[in-house]
Amino acid sequence: MGSKPRSKGQCFREMDKDKTERILLRADAGSSIGFGHYVRTCALGGYLCDEFRCVLVSRNPDLGLPSDYQRTLAAQSGLTIIDVEEKDRDVFDPAFLDLIEPDDIVVLDNYYYDTAYMTEVKKRCRALVCIDDMHDRHFPADMVMTFCPLTREQFSLERDTKFVGGMEWSFLRSPFLAPAKPRHITNKPPQRVALAMGGADPLGLTNKMVRLMREIDAALQIEVLAGQTVKINFKEDERLRIHRQASAQEIADMFDRCDLGIFPASTVCVEAFSRGLPVAAGYFVDNQEEIYAYGVEHEWFMPLGDLTQSEETLKPLLKKVLTTPLSPAPAFDFAARKHDIIELFKSL
């Protein structure tokens, strides 16, 4: 009589059952929803994989399974992916629950897990960690982490929930933890600019920004970081370099050779700060507004405001950024927090 077929998750658990405690990380990604949560979750897994057995689960709403790019990012951080073949969240979410083991630490990174789902996850695991910048619902978690400059009082938490918040608690991939090259800030406007408007860019902001930058300064060198499906209409421009699905090292190298970064107020700004790159930032979704406002107030960013505003309104703000002498970027010691983050997980 034949044995019952085993799922990939079961095979993985049996193969590695003699190793250390398991951390099960969940972060969804795809061309339609972007890769920001996934990238920072991979970075966190890279911190933890020497101390824990870290496995990653990700719903790709476009393909049904993680893409080759997602698998590459996971492998670069030392993570193994458990495949769950499903695009629909209504099916994927309960399937993820079935992967949880009682001794797991589970990490959820996205904005759409409601309190009821987080409660169900917590029932099935030893400890639940939520990475979230929104504070519009109750978190029944053992720990909540955010790189935004938010306080515990702004979140609804359990009395014994651990909380860490602030830019210095960001998770970064190894090239962004390496010492930055000395950067000589001249009394001149930027000549080479890094531009990134998100891995998905459903609003077509990349084209909008390149067009305005060309109108302001035709000689400006522009390096664009974009997802595979982002449409860019300036491919014949010899002063434009396009980087798609770039590795962390390639991004770090790009930031090192640029004078200024133009980004939404998101994880990419943190990566830029790690390389000492001055940043002009704006926002285009709700969860970016708080960090944008705080960053402008504390002079982390040169302000661009709402990136979806009309070109007539945005152009003078962008012109000011591109014609003003640069100031040094804010300094954060991200590497120093790596050990603290590992110790927090060991305490759960």
Keywords:
single chain, 348 residues, alpha/beta, 7-stranded parallel sheet, 6-stranded parallel sheet, 11 helices, disordered N terminus
Would you mind describing this structure in some detail?
- The chain has eleven helices and 15 strands.
- Helix 2 packs parallel to helix 3 (68-76) and helix 6 crosses helix 10 (311-323).
- It has helices at residues 8-15, 36-48, 68-76, 89-99, 115-124, 205-216, 248-257, 267-274, 286-297, 311-323, 334-346; strands at residues 22-26, 53-57, 80-81, 105-109, 127-131, 138-139, 143-146, 156-157, 162-165, 192-196, 221-226, 240-244, 260-264, 279-283, 301-306.
- The longest helix has 13 residues, at 36-48.
- It is globular and about 60 Å long.
- The strands form three sheets. It has a seven-stranded parallel beta sheet, with helices on both faces. Strands 12-11-10-13-14-15 form a six-stranded parallel beta sheet, sandwiched between helices.
- Mean pLDDT is 92; it is low at 1-18.
- With 348 residues, it is α/β, with parallel strands linked by helices.
